[in-house]
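SAMPLE LOG
Freezer: B-3
Tube label: C17
Construct: single chain, 119 aa
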Amino acid sequence: MQRNYQNKFYSKAQNLIQHLTMEYNRILKDYDVIVMPTSSGKPIKLPTRADSIGETLKLVLGMIKNTAPFNATGHPALSVNAGLSEGLPCGMMIVGRMFDDLTVLQVARAFEKIRDGAN
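STRUCTURE (predicted):
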């Protein structure tokens, strides 16, 4: 019985990943890259032993909701230091078309030059 559930959930996950990949590919037909925050919020305090597993998972999964999709789809993505927000570092994620790592790297380098004031 357990094996059947694992197969069912694995199959569902694979279908969702395929759908997500197609949606990002559709968006990237019109744009060279997608630029977004690396993290969707401020850094969190580390969970303590007093926190439940559910609370800990909620915190951790909340931290990776912008990055995890691209781990699944395989789109090239990187995070570059975008400066500070309220004294804390924040990252800018650049995501590109499948197999177009070079454009992602070029956009990141261009941003770094502008950010650092280089010509």
